[in-house]
Design goal:
alpha/beta; seven-stranded mixed sheet; 13 helices; 16% strand; transferase; aminotransferase; lyase; Aminotransferase; PyrdxlP-dep_Trfase_small
């Protein structure tokens, strides 16, 4: 396993399993697959692969602009959200930064590269890993934090802040904020997405990708949003010609406007998340935590630890995320994402057998 989920190619090779038979509950990718409308458009325009993309990506930027309700001039493009996150952290170059604990490890990795002093805001189990907003703001002020980076919803806890709560941080502190909205589409974006704040607050940047919700990790398309001219110029100056490939451009121009698909995925994930949370809560020796992502963090109260559980499930071609590599978690925690109904039922059946239902 790499630090961000399972390497299914390695698992298949080492365990003599066909990749198509692996049920990967570790990678958090929408199980319904990409927008059919986008894929059909790609098939109809394969001839465009023989031409260079639009160097300015005007149609792609407009599609994203309409989708996130943000000025198209405030959009930067990149090879996935991780590239933009790394470059954004280099741009902000904070002296004192804050991350949530636990969280996506790349924030800490990139901050250490620039020798930023890192303060961890611990998400406590006794509070169900939820953020105490007033406490967070107080800590930012007292420790003179000049940069806050976090995922919303947070991975792996599913913790979330509303846009109004993020706006409160912007108003009551001087910290610059980088919000990773990798999983935001699995929530009610009218409440939780902070993209609507971009055109108003220059000390806010938002990063999104297309790997998780749109199920297209292979096209490596990410985008960032900011109204800070210096931020935008920084990305413009480091751009290379045709940074985004034609496949990403073609799919992006269509999928962001595929409202039927977006609604279908949101409704599917919401209903299955509620169902699986309810079923896990019935298992005597497990505790599930409320999540706003397409994944659920689970604590083992009694029984095999997460590493052993992963081995047991791998024998059934099921892959989960052992969370012991996350700061502030240990071998008692694992994370699962939501797959299709038959796969979810198989996982639940195995968990009930191992940890015994009430």
């Amino acid at each position: 396993m790499n630090s961000h989920g399972a390497n299914v190619f390695e698992i298949a090779k080492n365990n003599g399993i066909k990749i198509k038979d692996i049920r990967d509950f570790s990678s958090n990718i929408n199980p319904l697959g990409p927008s059919k409308k986008a894929l059909d458009d790609l098939k109809d325009n394969l001839n465009l692969l023989s031409s260079y993309p639009d160097v300015d990506y005007i149609d792609l930027r407009n599609s994203i602009s309409n989708y996130v309700n943000c000025n198209s001039e405030n959009i930067v493009l990149g090879l996935g959200s991780t590239e933009i996150l790394k470059d954004a952290i280099k741009f902000f170059a904070p002296k004192i930064s804050m991350i949530l604990s636990p969280c996506y490890s790349e924030y800490e990795n990139e901050l250490r590269k620039i020798n930023s002093k890192i303060i961890e805001y611990n998400l406590e189990e006794k509070k169900d890993f939820k953020i105490d907003l007033d406490e967070l703001i107080k800590t930012i002020r007292e420790d003179k934090v000049d940069f806050l980076v976090f995922a919303n919803p947070n991975n792996p806890t599913g913790t979330i802040l509303s846009a109004s709560e993020i706006e409160k941080i912007l108003k009551e502190t001087s910290a610059k904020i980088l919000v990773d909205e990798t999983y935001i589409e699995f929530t009610d974006m009218s409440i939780y997405s902070s993209t609507k704040l971009i055109d108003t607050y220059k000390n806010l940047a938002v990063v999104r990708g297309t790997s998780k919700f749109f199920a297209l990790p292979g096209i490596r398309l990410g985008y960032g949003l900011s109204s800070d001219e210096n931020f935008l110029n920084y990305f413009k100056n480091k751009e290379v010609l045709w940074q985004v490939n034609s496949v990403a451009e073609i799919c992006g121009k269509v999928m962001f406007s595929d409202e039927k698909y977006i609604t279908e995925v949101f409704n599917f994930i919401t209903s299955r998340r509620n169902y699986i949370f309810s079923e896990i809560s019935k298992i005597k020796n497990l505790k599930a935590y409320e999540s706003f992502g397409n994944f659920i963090l689970i604590k083992i109260l009694r029984g095999p630890k997460a590493g052993k559980l992963r081995e047991k499930l791998l024998e059934k071609d099921l892959v989960i995320r052992d969370c012991k590599s996350f700061n502030n978690l240990d071998e008692n925690y694992f994370r699962i994402c939501l797959l299709k109904d038959d796969d979810n039922k198989i996982l639940l059946k195995n968990l009930k057998e191992i940890y015994r239902s009430e």
